[in-house]
Amino acid sequence: MMSAPESAFPPGVVGLTGGIASGKSSVCRWLMEHGGLAGLSADELVAELLEVGGEGWRQLRTWLDSGFFSSNGRLDKPMLRREIFSDTRLRHRVESCLHPLVLTAISERVAARPAFNQRPMLIEVPLLFEAGWQVLFNKVVLVSAADDVCLSRLRARDGVTEEEAHLALKAQMPLERKRQWADYVIDNSTKWPETVVQLEKLQKELDTIVAMS
């Protein structure tokens, strides 16, 4: 885990996180489309950083085994993902390389946000608590789902084996620990309409936070 950053984002910038395959992106997308919130995905920033020539790609290229790269230099991200779920040392080294770059990119996007924008801004960060970034946000939303639900979704989404899915889930911080730090918890274990009811309430509360800031 990285040491926590010292600076904080404005009150209207809200962190959104959750376990793997819990439905974070679906929740973020709904709040953007139906609630008019701005959104930013850490995963999308990582994808940009890992493009050939990107800063993240350049740093990994200096020490990561050449077998992770194709003949044209592209990083084999599925292969790396499989390895980091089973190799704790590799995972920590990759995270220590990428997390500072992602945080810088997020900070730049937040700083570029128009001052007159009175809508909340969601920052979706899968490893928000693991990275110690909860101190950056006035409020943090946790999307949760039962382990068996996440495992089923993960296997269907990524085509991984049951063993790989369990390793991916095990590599993350326990959900109960995350619950202790979250300001809002969205249960996305059941049918989507039931999740939407929770999101409609959350949207109103986030709007209130911005109005009071």
Task: Characterise the protein shown here.
The protein is an alpha/beta fold. It has one domain (13-212): Rossmann fold (3-Layer(aba) Sandwich), CATH 3.40.50. 52% of the residues lie in helices and 11% in strands. The chain contains nine helices and five strands; from the N terminus they run βαβααααββαααβα. The longest helix has 24 residues, at 88-111. The protein is globular and about 50 Å long. It starts with 12 loop residues before the first strand and ends with a helix. The mean pLDDT is 92.
Quick structural gist:
It is built from 9 helices and 5 strands, in the order βαβααααββαααβα. The chain is of the alpha/beta class and 213 residues long. The mean pLDDT is 92.
* CATH architecture heading: 3-Layer(aba) Sandwich
Helix content: 40-55%
Overall, the morphology is globular
If you consult CATH, what is the topology? Answer: Rossmann fold
The percentage of residues in β strands lies in: 5-15%
What features would you highlight for this structure?
Rossmann fold; 11% strand; 5-stranded parallel sheet; 213 residues; alpha/beta
SSE diagram, text form:
Layout: E1 13-18, H1 24-35, E2 38-41, H2 42-49, H3 55-61, H4 77-86, H5 88-111, E3 121-124, E4 140-144, H6 147-158, H7 162-170, H8 175-181, E5 184-187, H9 192-212
Parallel strand pairs: 1-3, 1-4, 2-3, 4-5
